Each structure stands twice: as structure tokens, then as C-alpha cells.
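ASSEMBLY PREDICTION REQUEST
Request ID: AP-0331
Submitted by: J.K., bench scientist
Number of chains: four
Total residues: 520
Priority: normal
Notes: Please return the full assembly, not individual chains.
Input sequences:
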Amino acid sequence: MTVDPNFLSALMILKLEGVFTLTGEERQALHDLPMRVVVLKTNQDIVHIGECPLQSFLVLEGFASSYKLTADGVRQIVALHIPGDAPDLQTLHLKRIDCSFASISPCKVGFFQLDDLRRICERHPRLSAAFWRETLVDASILREWVVNVGRRDAYTRVAHLLCEFLVRLKAVGLVENSAFDFPITQANLADATGISAVHMSRALKALREDGLIQTRRMHLAVPDWAKLVNAGDFDPFYLHLGVNAAAGFRPAPQPKAAAL
Amino acid sequence: MTVDPNFLSALMILKLEGVFTLTGEERQALHDLPMRVVVLKTNQDIVHIGECPLQSFLVLEGFASSYKLTADGVRQIVALHIPGDAPDLQTLHLKRIDCSFASISPCKVGFFQLDDLRRICERHPRLSAAFWRETLVDASILREWVVNVGRRDAYTRVAHLLCEFLVRLKAVGLVENSAFDFPITQANLADATGISAVHMSRALKALREDGLIQTRRMHLAVPDWAKLVNAGDFDPFYLHLGVNAAAGFRPAPQPKAAAL
DNA sequence: CGATTACTTGAATTCACTCAATGGCGGTGG
DNA sequence: CCACCGCCATTGAGTGAATTCAAGTAATCG
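STATUS: Completed
Returned structure:
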């Protein structure tokens, strides 16, 4: 995948189009957002907790994480970011960043000035709302992570994380035949699920032996989606994907919501 | 505490004032927000997951929770809400609610129409930004909860939750002499920390025996704040409280943030 | 090809869980 | 007023899931 200098906005636009149709003006505004592309190796810090940056970033290629450390130096990954994600939108309204960001695979990110984005938000209220919505979806994912880490056993937990990964990657077109590139170490997966790296190895082995996943190299395949969903107690609803993006993952058209 | 019919907006205003000073117009707009006060007993559902409500609510008195259930019916509380919180601002931009809300103590909540709030947001961009900020702080708390549940042992986890509770309650003036009303069952605390109710009992006992907390009836006192903070690996920064609100909790004025 | 990093496996341990029984408190009704 | 019931909290005993420690294998990179 080559990096078009405006690939940043292209990805952003793709994602927002999943929610509502942009006007030409809105698309243009995003397109004109100046940015600086940076290439990262694995495990490089992007922003560090406590900083007050003047810029924010978008993931273009590869994967990134948000993480925090406990007092005794144990790491917990609190979010995984895939191409198209803007992990750090909180900087728009919170001065100091409350978690660190790092690449967890070779990775390209695009930096943009917060002031530029603020200007866009002021001029285009619908875009502002769309970014707000993004941060709300992130919060929804965090809620599911609390459940995952708090109440599911390791096997289910890992299955759930892989389900989430697959659905999110599919939404940005990075899945082919229920398989995708997966250059993430077990240690990182362990930090994302709150288990030890050793136990992650065992959990993945169990999933493999049960025929729920196939791992070769840095590549992951899901032979039986329904089984993995079942094993992971997974319902993609919390991802709040547009109907288009979620096609193929919702077994049936979503039921009319219950009246209040 | 009696319920002034406009107590809702009063609380909302109080909280927002912690971030920036409202103009008279802004204050008036909040004050004029129509609302309906509802009194709840313990453990009553307020909004159920999957609904598409036309209204949202604010907690006036007592405590509420956001929770989700796993497939086998185990509950995980993903957020606790105290007076002044608007737990359900996500409805502004997400159609279907992705978690349930319930009272976890006797409780008063104020419902308002989303359309009314949307109108306020359109007319008062600074208020819109302030509400957005609120949701970002909620996300920050969720990140800390993932760390808490994922990487800390039960003892530390419970201490951390109690620290968070005390700081947040203090910010809305519900703490006196490091003590506060605490009408929350151990089962609920267990669901918030991802441990079993039995183990919660043991953890609280240990904290009591170590002199970190005192519990009598539905009341909790913290004799030695520094010790509890230490035991809970607690740093209030993630709460993003205004400087005023956090007074007395930050050991020193926050250091100039590191440059990017 | 040698060095480093990632993964796997086994064994012993520990933290937290379930199950089960008991005690305290508050409310309700005879 | 006291007896009873239900909810909540406590405690003990046994179990189990996940951890740490340790060793060894496979893969990757310069």
C-alpha cells in the first residue's frame, strides 16, 4: 500500500462516509487538512502520557495502541488502533493526554495541527459532530473492553478481541476471505486482554486446536466465523458501524429498537 | 437535600464552571432546559441496552451505574455515576444505546429531551464543546478502569475505586472530613471491579484491618488519604478535574507539561 | 550464521472463585 | 412487641484458572 500524501484525509473521509454522506465542501475541508506523514518501527512511542501536544494524528498503515502503566510497571493496552483511526481526538478538548500511544507493528501515521482541525470543526458543524461521534464509539469500545477484561475467561477474552479486530479491519477493507495480516506479538495481545504472555500462548493454542483460528506467520485466518463469534461472546453492535460497513456481520437486519 | 426543580441545571452548571466560566447567556440556556424529575429505588433500570431514546438524563441524587451482561448473565458495571453526571450523553450522536443504566442506590434523576440539548449545542458552541469534553473525560475514566480491572489485584483495585469515588464526590461537595455516604452494596462494588462479591467482602476487610478505610453502616471514612492513594496506585489526573475541583488532591501544583 | 526476539511447554504456586453455612440488620405483619 | 423473612455481609473449605519461573525451540534480522 503506497502512501498518497492525501491518504490521510482519504481514510478519514472513508470512515465518515460510513455514517452520513459528506457534502463537497466538507470533503474538501478534510482534503485540505495539512499533514505530515511519519514512518514508525514496531514499539515506538508516538505520544507520551502527560504531554500537551499541539497536534494529533491518524493511523495510516499498521497498528497502534493506547496504553498505561501501573505503579509496578505492568502495561495495559486500553485500545488498539487500525488504519483510519484517530486515536488521539481527546486532545481537542483535554489539555494533557491521559495515556500513551505507541506503534505495535511497523506503522505509518499522519500528524495534523489541532488548530487546523478546530477550524474545520467550527466551520463544519456536521464534521464536528462526526468527530464527536468517533470519540463516543471509542468510549463504547472501552466499555466492552471493561466487560471483556473484567468478566470473561482468557479463552473467551482472546476470541472476543480477535472478533473485534476482524470486524473493524473488514470495515476498512483490510480483510480478505476472513483472513488478515496480523503483525502483533502475543505479548501485545496479552497486554490488551489483561492476561500474561505465557497464557496468551496457551489460549491461542486452544483456539487453534478447536479450529477457530489458523495462524501462519503474521497472518490470521478465521475458518468458521460463527463459531468464533460464539466462543468470544461477541456482538458487533457496540462498534456502532454504519450499516454498510457492518454488512455480512449482522446475521439479520437489526430489529426495530424497543420503544422507550 | 431537597430537589429544586432547576437543580438539574444547577448541578450541570456547577460542573461546567469547573472547566471555564459560563457567560450569562450560556447559564440561562442551561437553566431553561426543561426536565422531568424521577425518583428511583435501588436497582431500577433507567435505560436499557439497545433502546433508541429521545431523552437523556442527569443524576441528581444517589448513585447510578452503566452495565453490560455477558452471555452467561454475569454483570459488569462499566461506569459509576454520581450527582451531576450525565451518563448518557452518547445518545446525542449514537442512535442505539450500547449499555444499560440502573440506579444502585435510592436515586433521583432528571430527564431532558435530546432535541432540547441539541438546540443548546447548536446555539452555544462552547457548551457543545463542554459536553463533548464531558464524554472525553468519561472515556478517560474508562481507560483507567480497563487498567484497574486488567492489571491490578483485588486489594489494589478496590482501593483505587474508592479513591476515585472520594475525589469525584469531593468535586461535587459530597465529602466531609474525608467521609461520605456510601449506600452501595458489596455486590455492586464487585461488579464494578470485576471480582466476586465474596472476594469483595474479603478485600474490604483487609483494607479495614490495614486502617485504610472505616465502614459503618452505609458510610465510608478514609482516615489516611495518602495511604489509600498509595495502596490503590491512584493518580487523580485521569479525572481531568478543574484545578479548583481537584484542590487538596494534587500534592503539588501540576508541573508544567513536558514539551512535545 | 550468530544473536536476538518471539513463542511454546512444563511444573509449582497463588490469587480469586464457587459452594455452603452463619450472623446481623431492617422491615413487615401477626 | 416480638417473630419472621429477606437482603446483605462474613467466614471457612475446597477448587480452579491464570500466574510465575524456568527451560527449550522456532523464527527473524543484521
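REVIEWER COMMENTS: Residues 246-260 of chain A have pLDDT under 50 and may be disordered.
SIGN-OFF: pending second reviewer
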